[in-house]
From TrEMBL:
Pfam families, per database record: Fer2_BFD, NIR_SIR, NIR_SIR_ferr, Pyr_redox_2, Rubredoxin_C
UniProt protein name: NAD(P)/FAD-dependent oxidoreductase
Keyword Iron-sulfur assigned: yes
Keyword hit for Iron: yes
Chain ranges of the Nitrite/sulphite reductase 4Fe-4S domain: 630-769
Keywords from the UniProt entry: 2Fe-2S, 4Fe-4S, FAD, Flavoprotein, Heme, Iron, Iron-sulfur, Metal-binding, Nitrate assimilation, Oxidoreductase
Cofactor(s) annotated in UniProt: FAD; siroheme; [2Fe-2S] cluster; [4Fe-4S] cluster
Pathway info: Nitrogen metabolism; nitrate reduction (assimilation)
UniProt domain NADH-rubredoxin oxidoreductase C-terminal: residue ranges: 321-388
Organism of origin: Paenibacillus cucumis
Limits of the FAD/NAD(P)-binding domain: 9-283
Length: 813
């Protein structure tokens, strides 16, 4: 009888991204080689530390950034001990000892203890209210502080500090970034790029104190401010330290493993101790410690092969890249970025568009680059830097935007071991194998199978290039771009909409059952989307599922961070009367409104209204809802126009009021804004609206697809019309075409780029029969709309049910 060899025991200390990514690769290479035990000090399974900034700004919950849930560990036979810290490694007896008394023997051991935030060793650094920014607990501390305090300081103008500062700013805090150097992100950006980034962040509300060295923290038990070495001070009720990280070497050092700045490792991640390896931020390789995720995954790939007995090239270091995720402006840096002797520089600086591009060459080969304001080519530029690609005229034109030039498929040039997805450590070979073995044909399928593009999405263009490269003539670019509407199904938006029509599905529950949703209850992403699609397809048959809507839409008011609400009454075209203004003022006093704010859409926002007062304030106002909370028409902004302005050529106020009264309350895929200018001077900012209308030379010009938000986009000219009747029909057709083909939460700026302006023009302008049919379907939809405040006031059962419970969500006008 042949004796089955017992699997060797692999122990991993550290449940973070570097260690678990190494384990994932081991499971792919040799799933039966090791019995695996994982220790993690935090109480969570493996999560994406890169996305902590999204948790901080509340755009994602902790559950959204989990990479491997507890079921994954069970399915792969991994023993997981969370909330457990290893305190000693006996390298002679090969045993690890934990703080709960556990002693676990090992055959192979990986130390992946990561890093710790560096806390400035200055007087007062131990005061309450001073934290680092490294894990979920830090995020929770910061969220709690934002609820209690107003003034915050973030010490450190690097990548992590700026992300922390922007997150606190979005939570409503007054934030100042303190930086030792005169220029922020000086390790990734040159002088010009740094100044551009700082100017952009200042325009968004951040403050900066650069060239400042912290001398001490002021206050008694709790921090109240910072004193700098130049004698100046800064008030601060909460301080985040983001001045850098240090490899967490305490365990290794205590256990007799050789340590310098980090745990010393060779090219295969071996430490000084037999069968003990170190990977990630805790190690030091060839004198370098890395704090970015891509190098850690590259190390993990080498270590995994080494542990599985697979031939592999040694790890020789990494080319690092940086991408700022939440600043609202594209920031990319990779490789060399400072001018130096022996380098040739390709540079473009457009101050009006706020774009800066710089590519550095050594011997004609690309060795580094910086992109500010336009990061479309960041993925390909990063690959060109990694492979040392020779600069060509085609590549130059592609990066600098001087021409639309085909530069070939970068995927063909990538080595199999190149990491394509830095967030999740997915190599080109992993993607290629998944495509071939599983018959994948879309980027979304690749994301599900490999996790490539699952996190920040920056690698998606390269993933699609690899798909195109592997499939060749079988590649379908349209199909490749189809994404599942959520994780409950693999079906795309178009497939779901088609099935609803073909099967006559009327409710969300029917859709989830008939289309075999993995989660029969749906999720927070698909429930509101399905409710919208059903209402759009069956306007007279579908009954609105209010429980599927975001809280703001359920409550018909914008919830604020303190649990109160903002109430915005409708002001058609931004026009009001003295009587209405007096009424609003009286009601603001009566209900102790905290703030009356003039919005960007020429309306008044009453902020700080208690939940229980909402129906009463609506009744006293006697005005219709301004829909400042909804995925619907928000405002129609107007200039004075020909009624009063000496430059006005058309009645912009009259047209704006007509449009707003016609299309108010209609559900749309996303929030929708219009503006009408009476002349080309653009006082109403028509060129940054979903639909912008400009009076010019006795006619109306219609612009579409503009956006003044985070992803700013100038609107494009759709057409020019002579009559008001034609204008109304084209606007109706355009809105209905967007309603019928747009993805839920997809703004027109994204929709236009996906659909193509020519296609939209043909559908709503040139094809007269189709235009008429779209406008007719719009009329059917408009016939179903109701004024929500009145509906609730007139229905006591609905009023009681809708105001029983609230859960915080979504954004406001």
């Amino acid at each position: 009888m042949v004796k089955v060899q017992e699997r060797r025991h692999l122990v991993l200390i550290g449940n973070g991204m570097a260690g678990i990514n190494t384990v994932e690769q081991i499971l792919k290479l040799a799933p039966s080689t090791y019995r695996i035990t994982v220790f993690g000090s935090e109480p969570y399974p493996n999560y994406n530390r890169i996305q902590l900034s999204y948790v901080l700004e509340k755009s994602k919950a902790v559950e959204d950034i989990i990479l491997n849930d507890r079921n994954w560990y069970l399915e792969n036979g991994i023993e997981l001990y969370t909330g457990t810290t290893v305190t000693h490694i006996d390298t002679e007896q090969k045993i690890v000892k934990a703080d709960n008394g556990m002693e676990v023997p090992y055959d192979k051991l990986i130390v992946a203890t990561g890093s710790n935030p560096f806390m400035l060793p200055v007087p007062g650094a131990d005061k309450e209210g001073i934290v680092g920014f490294r894990d979920i607990a830090d995020c929770q501390n910061m969220l709690h502080a934002a609820d209690q305090y107003k003034k915050a300081a973030v010490i450190g103008g690097g990548l992590l500090g700026l992300e922390a500062a922007k997150g606190l700013l979005k939570l409503g805090m007054d934030v100042t970034v303190v930086h030792l150097f005169e220029e922020i992100m000086e390790r990734q950006l040159d002088h010009t790029a740094s100044l551009m980034l700082q100017a952009e962040l200042e325009s968004q509300g951040l403050k900066f104190a650069t060239g400042k060295q912290t001398k001490e923290f002021l206050g008694d038990d709790r921090v109240s401010g910072i004193r700098f070495t130049d004698g100046t001070t800064l008030d601060a009720e909460f301080v985040v330290m983001a001045v850098g990280i240090r490899p967490n070497t305490a365990l290794a050092k205590k256990s007799g493993i050789v340590v310098n700045s980090g745990i010393l490792v060779d090219d295969y991640m071996c430490t000084s101790a037999t069968d003990v390896y170190a990977v990630g931020e805790c190690n030091e390789h060839r004198g370098i410690t890395y704090g970015l995720v891509a190098p850690l995954f590259e190390q993990g790939a080498v270590l995994a092969k080494h542990l599985c007995g697979v031939d592999t090239k040694p790890y020789e270091g990494s080319v690092v890249s940086t991408q700022l995720k939440i600043s609202g402006v594209d920031v990319f840096s990779a490789g060399e970025f400072m001018d130096a002797e022996g380098l040739s520089i390709v540079r473009m600086h457009d101050e009006w568009l706020r774009i800066y591009k710089k590519v550095l060459l050594r011997g004609g080969r690309i060795v580094g680059g910086v992109l500010i304001g336009d990061g479309k080519e960041s993925s390909r530029l990063q690959q060109w830097i990694r492979t040392g690609t020779v600069m060509t005229e085609a590549i130059h034109n592609a990066i600098m935007g001087q021409a639309s030039v085909e530069t070939g498929n970068t995927a063909a040039e990538l080595a199999d071991e190149e990491i394509v997805c830095g967030c999740n450590g997915v190599t080109k070979k992993h993607i290629v194998d998944a495509i071939n073995e599983k018959g994948l044909t879309t980027v979304e399928e690749i994301k599900v199978a490999t996790s490539a593009s699952r996190s920040c999405g920056g690698c998606r263009p390269v993933v699609e290039q690899i798909l195109q490269y592997v499939l060749g003539d079988k590649y379908d670019s349209a199909a490749a771009k189809q994404e599942a509407i959520c994780s409950c199904t693999t079906l795309s938006r178009d497939e779901v909409v088609t099935a609803i029509k073909e099967k006559g599905l009327i409710t969300s529950k029917e859709v989830r059952y008939a289309l075999e949703w993995d989660n029969p209850e749906g999720c927070s992403k698909c429930r509101p989307a399905l409710n919208y699609y059903l209402g759009m397809i069956w306007p007279t048959e579908h009954v609105d599922e209010k429980d599927s809507r975001f809280v703001n839409e359920r409550m018909h008011a914008n919830i604020q961070k303190d649990g109160t609400f903002g109430v915005v009454p409708r002001m058609y075209g931004g026009v009001t009367t003295p009587d209405d203004l007096r009424l609003i003022a009286d009601i603001a006093v009566k209900y102790n409104v905290k703030l009356v704010k003039v919005t960007g859409g020429q309306r008044l926002d009453l902020l700080g209204v208690k939940k229980e007062d909402l129906p009463k304030i609506w009744k006293d106002l006697g005005m219709p809802s301004g829909y400042a909370y909804a995925k619907a028409l928000r405002t129609v902004k107007t200039c004075v126009g020909s009624q009063f302005c000496r430059f006005g050529t058309k009645d912009s106020m009259g047209m704006g009021i007509m449009l707003e009264k016609k299309f108010e309350r209609l559900d749309m895929p996303a929030k929708f804004k219009l503006a009408v200018n009476g002349c080309p001077r653009n006082c109403a900012e028509s060129t940054t609206k979903d639909i912008g209308i400009v009076g010019n030379e006795g006619a109306w010009e219609i612009y579409v697809g503009g956006n003044g938000g985070i992803k700013a986009r100038l609107a494009e000219l759709l057409c020019k019309v002579r009559t008001d009747e034609e204008l109304l029909e084209i606007v109706a057709a355009f809105m209905q075409h967007y309603r019928e083909t747009g993805k839920y939460l997809e703004r027109t700026s994204e929709w236009i780029e996906r659909m193509g302006l020519e296609s939209v023009t043909e559908a709503v302008v040139n094809d007269l029969d189709n235009r008429r049919v779209l406008a007719e379907r719009m009329e059917v939809a408009l016939a179903q709309v109701k004024e929500p405040w009145s509906e609730i006031l007139n229905n006591s059962n609905l009023r009681e049910r809708m105001f029983e419970e609230i859960s915080i969500s979504t954004k406001q006008d």
